[in-house]
Design goal:
4-stranded antiparallel sheet; 11 helices; binds flavin-adenine dinucleotide; alpha+beta; 5-stranded antiparallel sheet
Length: 287
């Protein structure tokens, strides 16, 4: 289908974009890479009268490290993440996740800020953000606030972003060197969303789990942080029994919507399998 007619705006600064957003209100939508918004507009699930393109705002781009924090501009594309030497060295979990998003065309235009702001539980960055302990900088007319990824995702397509706010940055505490990591994603074919996926960030010390974060994609109305699974292995040797117990606990929080990718039972089982694979690989990768 063809989208409803709309007016296109391309502000060059963040204050201009915020002013426009405030002036146009509910009739406006922010445009990032367009790979979720434009399909929705074509289906007429979204019918904005105005699109505010964030693509010309230089300060929304870029990847840098500031102290112990990796700072990523919301308009940074998946491709830029995949090819970032800094992220390859300091945050390979994010690189591994971004590389598995859809296909090169989507990765070339799609942005990390759009992927997170969209609030789709099928998107990969939300669970990666939970595993990495990220926080998001949201800016509106009233100023700036920083919110943790934990609690940001309220429901399907529902986040803590308030009307009039723009996500400007993603902040990730630089993972300790030697951390193990893995994003294990099951998809039916290249370019598809996850049937189920698990993100793991792991630190071992003296043969036991010093710290671990486990998060799941597309097996609930939001990404899920598997806190009981984390607690079950923290302070323990990460042997096969501990890994399978963590997977059982991860499965116990899953409530996937059945669709063409599988029914509830199958998707839940695959979330368990992805948890096992991600923990095994993360254990191997621990220095
Ligand atoms: C065929 C196909 C397969 C895909 N497969 C996957 C996949 O496997 N994994 C995956 O994670 N994603 C997948 N996607 C989605 C893709 O990654 C999108 O690019 C992403 O969901 C949205 O990012 P975007 O930059 O395109 O945002 P847009 O589509 O431009 O925007 C999405 C929403 O976020 C809002 N928004 C955008 N930026 C901001 C901001 N800075 N602040 C506040 N609100 C903002 C917009 O207003 C809009 O409501 C797929 C898409 C397609 C078309």
């Amino acid at each position: 289908m063809i989208p409803r007619e709309f007016e296109y705006h391309a502000p060059k600064t963040l204050p201009d974009a915020i002013t426009l957003l405030q002036r146009l209100g509910d009739d406006a939508k922010l445009l990032a890479g367009g790979h979720s918004l434009l399909p929705m507009m074509k289906l007429r699930f979204a019918q904005p009268g105005h699109l505010i393109d964030l693509g010309r705002i230089a300060e929304l781009k870029g990847i840098r490290e500031d102290g112990g924090t990796l700072v990523i501009g919301a308009m940074t594309t998946e491709n830029e993440i995949v090819w970032s030497k800094l992220l390859q060295a300091k945050c390979p979990l994010l690189v591994e996740g971004a590389r598995q998003i859809s296909d090169p065309q989507v990765r070339y235009k799609g942005t990390i800020g759009g992927d997170i702001s969209h609030g789709d539980p099928g998107n990969d960055h939300p669970a990666l953000m939970l595993a990495l302990g990220a926080s998001f900088v949201l800016r509106g007319a009233g100023g700036e606030r920083v919110v943790p990824a934990d609690g940001f995702f309220r429901g399907t397509y529902d986040t803590l972003l308030a009307p009039g706010e723009i996500m400007t940055q993603i902040r990730i505490p630089t993972p300790a060197s030697g951390s193990g990591y893995c994003y294990a994603k099951l998809k039916r074919k290249t370019g598809d969303f996850a049937t189920a996926a698990a993100a793991v960030l792991l630190r071992m010390q003296g043969g036991v789990v010093d710290d671990v974060r486990i998060a799941l994609t597309n097996v609930g109305p939001t990404p899920l942080r598997a806190t009981a699974a984390e607690a079950a292995v923290r302070g323990k040797r990460l042997d096969d029994a501990a890994i399978h117990e963590a997977a059982r606990l991860a499965m116990s929080i899953c409530a996937p919507a059945p669709d063409q990718r599988g029914d509830e039972e199958y998707k839940t089982a695959m979330a368990g399998e992805m948890t096992v694979r991600a923990l095994v690989k993360a254990r191997e990768r621990c220095a």
